[in-house]
Amino acid sequence: MKKSIVILTGGGPAPGMNTVVGSIAKTFISNGYRVLGFHGGYKGIFSKNPNFTEIDFLMADSIFNRGGSYLIMSRYKPTPVDFEQNFNLEFFKENNIKLLVTIGGDDTASTANRVAKFLSEHNFPISNIHVPKTIDNDLPLPLARPTFGYESAKSEGARLATTVYEDARTSNNWFVVCAMGRSAGHLAFGIGSAAHYPMIVIPEMFDKTTITIDKIVKLAVSSIVKRLTLGINYGAVMISEGVFHELNEEELKMSGVTFSYDEHGHPELGKVSKAHIFNELVEKKIKELGIKVKSRPVELGYELRCQSPSAYDLVYCTELGIAVHQLFDEGKTGCMVYIDNLGKVEPLYLKDIQDPVTGKIPPRLVSLHSDRVQAIINNIMHYITKDDYEAAKEYLKNPEEYDFRKILNW
Asked: What is the pLDDT of residue 264?
């Protein structure tokens, strides 16, 4: 029977999903394999009648440069009972599966290891190789390599944020913009930097103080007032949704938001407009201060996940797809694909980046004190400092309360 591989996609989409799938398919087809793609993530493995598609060259060629994911994605996570009662072992035997390729985050990778272990215990060992993705760029890949999808999402986010900034300049008002990023502020900072936003707020900035709604609002006001002292009546504030993730329960109640949580225990931030919430809070504060400024909310969320991949990700994801075959050919299994800046392919094992106690992968944070980040903070962003106190008194009774560095305890 012809040898086969199976591919599935887990979690949420990122630009380049189809590029990875298409590149894997083309490479394995040219080496004599059938390529099967599961729809619904891991649901197919735990279903008597899995929904899958055989991917031939023409299909792979038609999807590799498209946004979204041809293979329907899912956050489904099998339970121990699923393994005991619902595992479709016959699918693997009947199709002579030799490799399971998963594309997703750390939960998807961990489950792939469980599947491979189960198959081995039932005398049908296969290889499993994972391709890590997230537009949040928060997986700790060596040498600061980006996760696929991040550069495309940043590029589209910068395009939208620039249009918003042009509206602010045209209308002489302000916008409060929120960008995706559950655990780290890479996307918000990257977009805000590209669009020259005068205030960017990310979780990493609160390295010496607790994140509170009051501090976030004061940072926005600091930028608004600084620009007013410069005779500039417009601007935009970029806030990472991750600041919401770091707020304690009392602060969340103050925001007026009640979160639901996904099956992995993560607050479902995508269900609420963080931009609307923060804009309301900023408007309330500037009204209390008697400052005549209009502001409007803009959310940058799902718009960034399914766009067509940029040239960077088209090349990067193609290399990742080819690298899956290389690692498989070398007999590697239970690993993630990693490609360094020189194009060298290496296996990256979960155990090497997981916390040994919790088993979780710690997020890669924005390197706040790097020269690159500090250059933006010190030269592009606008905020009140000691030198601005006198001029700011026209708008604020106590300008020092809105001093950027004092708010952050820097």
From this structure: 60
- Contact between residue 5 and residue 298 where contact means Cβ atoms under 8 Å apart: no
Token digits of residue 140: 């700790």
Total residue length of the chain: 410
pLDDT of 169 over the 70 cut = yes
Q: Spell out the domains of the chain, with CATH numbers in brackets.
A: 4-148+309-348 (3.40.50.450), 152-305+365-407 (3.40.50.460)
In angstroms, the CA 172 to CA 179 distance is: 22
Instruction: Return all residues near 89 (Cβ < 8 A) that are at least 6 apart.
Output: 119, 122, 124
Among candidate residues 106, 107, 136, 388, the one labeled active-site is 136
Give DSSP secondary structure letters for 52-69: EEE--HHHHHHHTT-SS-
Do the beta carbons of residue 235 and residue 197 sit within 8 Å? yes
3 state DSSP class of 190: helix
* 280, containing H or E segment: helix 274-288
pTM assigned to the model: 0.91
Give ∠ CA 192-196-197 in degrees, rounded to 5.
60
Reported as type and span, the H/E element at residue 7 is strand 4-9
d(CA 32, CA 30): 6
The 10s digit of each residue's pLDDT in 219-248 is: 999 999 999 999 999 999 999 998 987 777
Q: State whether the Cα torsion 303-309-310-313 is positive or negative.
A: positive
Whole-number Å distance between alpha carbons of 180 and 185: 8
Measured CA distances, 38 to 8, 24, 43, 50, 198 (Å): 5, 14, 8, 7, 45
Nearest-angstrom CA–CA distance, 276 and 98: 49
**What residue spans of 122-273 are helical by DSSP H?**
150-171, 186-194, 213-229, 242-246, 249-255
Q: Where are the alpha helices (DSSP H) in 98-184?
A: 106-121, 150-171
Give the whole-angstrom CA distance, residue 357 versus residue 371: 33
Active site residue 136: yes
